[in-house]
């Protein structure tokens, strides 16, 4: 089965690039299931229902979020009625929305989860325990045909510890949040494909997607600065492509996807 | 001028790979100046004089450090007498060693600095101000022919803000510390080559170079665990190659370097 | 019912002062139940079985811990067999020891818990949820006659938010960890006695109980310094005294206890 | 000489209590110089020029700030023309306003500084080095008759390390920011009076001055909550009184000041 994951979509530049490219990219890659992290799609901070609908319409099967999940409050009533939109699984009991779901891809079932790290991030319940509980009820190659986890975390150590902890139980574990694609796509010994970070879909001539001058000023000064706004140059689309073994749900190959925006291009061979 | 930078060398696997590969890599790339981050070369924590000498002997012109600079105390007397070994520039006044230096590469002069970020790291003086002061006395294309800054930092935002702040004043600004190579090598509008993180030289079947089981246990448990030790499988060598314009010191091209250890290979075209 | 709580015992100075004073203090106050935070009793870092036994022998009914719980590994087998020694309740599932217990004080039953905050501290499961679960099975004035919670946390905001959240369900909620007694002892509107921090039992001519020069050097320098060791001057004993209503378990009065060591003395009136 | 320092004034309750009480308190204590931390005076976040003027009119000689210095932007033009208002000394070069000043108190001169800690706070230049530089130009008992430093910091360890580092060079070093008065007022061996935290002037039936329900909800949930607003019950006034030796500028006595708001009352003896 062919899966495509795209990293944090940032602002207008990022979402317009994704919306424009996704139909053709999906076809070119033969992707049967597409997950997009949308936590920064609305002006860099959060997601609106309207933008969520546009991303679904462009070909995303599931959208994930992260620490910016609720930056736009209007997403809260929307997520209650939209099971294809996931917020971090390890948010406190009682949080609106869902952190994981099983979705149909034709005759196949795909488990998707969004889980958030804790190192250098907010205080949350343990993402490792939450994921262990999730896999106690979903078995790759048994109850689901593929499993994709978006681990939204700052520290490379936490993302890698997470991936090794669940190696063999997911098709793909992919990091998000740093807004920089890592060049370490690989299949772990247990058969799970992994990349420390998918990178963002946004304008890289920026500070993690935001306009350079205002963002840099925050490191130079301790003053209320200009508001941060997304950079508006040409966006790169960054993500990860995985092909799974239908018998086991494990990964047969992983390849980074990078297109446009001044980054070096990357596309799976033979597509 | 051709510059090669290699990211954090981790443990025996990392340093033996670098020592074995560097002579040939240097020749193949025609690299005239080589900088290696060695903060994890001694069993994952710090650097010893003996390992420092071995890395110089293998072809490193300058070694940089980071938050693990003093993990091995015997490096302190050594650094006092070894100007080619740099510790973070923005360490407090009175800290042994130097944070920057100008080094000869044949008839050319290369400025190298090691500077440390603050976001999610220790309390330090401002790396931006320290670097501004450095460039007040060293002008690229005027007093030095090339300038390379290793910005040792956790957050992608801080590294990118730093790079944009000094775009046009350095040949290469390259991040270290996350131990994951980023796939965003590019030349910024002002002519400075940049990659958010060089990645480590070490065994990637690990948690940032350390053995998986013990490192992952730290995220699952709050108990004194096994000591962390470097992973000992085949190491990947990760770094960045830059070619500069001799007239200006600015970058003409940047290319990631990745070799061995199960990562996808990357080498500049035409070498 | 009369309860006495003593804050973090630091090193030899702290524990010798507590061991010497506790029998008389207990008698003078008519304290029927005594809880002591012992996380720093062993040379400032952790607790040994031997020191634990000495504190029990001197009159402590229960000992609590905190982020230094496991600094001395020999406490781990000891805690397994010693229900009177409590480690943080919200440590991960599978952690040795217990985080709460119900203890006999003559014919009465006292619930004691040790819970750890997260703000500026380690990643842990939610202390608020853990405590909510605890009170779901223990009702003050119904299943237990008194309830005392040691909330080991850095931030005053988290300790106060915690206290208000459980106001009316505990006899005493008292903070530990900052090693400084707060002067805000009061009974909250719901009847729970509260003091943001009990303060340490140790030598205050120090940096939170550790020798001044080495501890201050860590703020001035980024170098491997002298090892920290507890200050050895006269220790102050710091804690909180509470008298409860036997019918409800709620607090009738709270008074700080401070004795010796150069701090202003404080003792409940009429004792 | 008699000095009075009042801790973080929080919101309307805090500032109205201070404005009402200060004239009489000043007279009762015979205070010749009064410093008030005003970083939370405007609805809990920052200070407005109008509130600043009201505090000066009520008897404050100098106002200090902290991490909330710029929460109200209109204070920035005001501070440029008001030398009696101090922001953190170790803010970056180029920051508006001043971090220290020498002020006349009759025929005497008083040095006042506001300096900010770094542990668990923002990235700033070293407060220890900044203060060392300050004392290189101002000598207690030589160029100034008294010196008072408000060290605005989270961690008790940093505040105590700071106090010991400058023991003998200031009349009073007093912490702010935790919004809880510490019960550890004392004169250090070198003659500097010290209290780890002055406590806030505000309503203590709150979470550090803010309304309980909304503030506690932030620890229970990860959702955009109600906005925080200051608690509006009766405020306690919290501070520190110091009497100095006119010959040396060192402290002869220190006494906590607490008045109203349900905290235990404290006032220097004999006033
Ligand atoms: Fe993001
Ligand atoms: Fe994020
Ligand atoms: Fe490193
Ligand atoms: Fe590092
Ligand atoms: Fe402690
Ligand atoms: Fe502690
Ligand atoms: Fe404050
Ligand atoms: Fe503050």
Automatic annotation (TrEMBL), chains A, B, C, D:
What GO molecular function annotation could you give as one example from this UniProt entry? 2',3'-cyclic-nucleotide 3'-phosphodiesterase activity
Entries under Pfam families matching the protein = YmdB
State the protein's name.
Answer: YmdB family metallophosphoesterase
